[in-house]
Amino acid sequence: MTSSIAELISERIDTMPAGERRAAQTLVANYPLIGLKTVADFSQQAGVSSPTILRFVSRLGFHNYAEFQAALQDELAAQLQSPLSRTESQPARDRGKTSPVLEATLENVRETFRHISDKQIRDIVAKLAQPRAKVFLIGGRFTDPIASYMTVHMTIVRPNVFHLAGQESVWRDRLIDMGKRDVLLIFDIRRYQDSLLRFAEKAHQRGTDIVLFTDQWLSPIARFAGHVIAGRTSVPSSWDSSAALFVMAETLIGELTRELQAGSAKRIREMEDLR
Hints:
Layout: H1 5-12, H2 18-29, H3 39-46, H4 50-59, H5 65-79, H6 83-88, H7 100-114, H8 118-129, E1 135-139, H9 144-157, E2 161-163, H10 168-174, E3 183-187, H11 194-205, E4 209-215, E5 227-231, H12 243-259, H13 261-274
Parallel strand pairs: 1-2, 1-3, 3-4, 4-5
Helix pairs in contact: 2-3, 2-4, 3-4, 7-12, 8-12, 9-12
């Protein structure tokens, strides 16, 4: 699978001039629809010139704006696929070969980490390590188990970590506890949940720092997120795979434990004494 435009942006945004960086940020915040508008509309919303938009598109490796839009249209079509449509398009499997899902999953993990910088991981860990911050985690229908898994680990190494489970009304009640020092980790992959989008917008309005874990097509929650982890999820199956996001969650757990090494060791010893 070729790199998505969101992945290309993640790879190259640190080398972009200020104007192109604004174009990239505007696209991520309105992904992919702003890129399907005219150059003039895109440039106006980004607050840059039309030539800047064209230079930005060229930096991503496209020969012209039409080629860039065609790639976005292909991504949009993939984003809207349902499990039924993917079932109907699956080729017959050769029973004599290694599972194509296994091969695709391994490639997804490699590609996910190739497009995420060490700096981004360090920045996210620094936010999660802030002693006065409360950390909230939530996921969608299929990704909430990752949020729960991450919560259990993080609770061991630091206090004030909360998994938001149950109905949407319960999540909204927790907004009162969220503020500008706090961090909200959200897992949302295609087909994106409107309830999570509404919740993210409310948390963003309260100044809560949002870290989004999504797929290569980007959940609309990206417009509210300070950090976006775009994991590869597509495999030759009716269902998407969250394996790469699980590995990313475990990576962050490991890095956070290392960052909080002195305090977490003391906390773990006290926990063991209480057992």
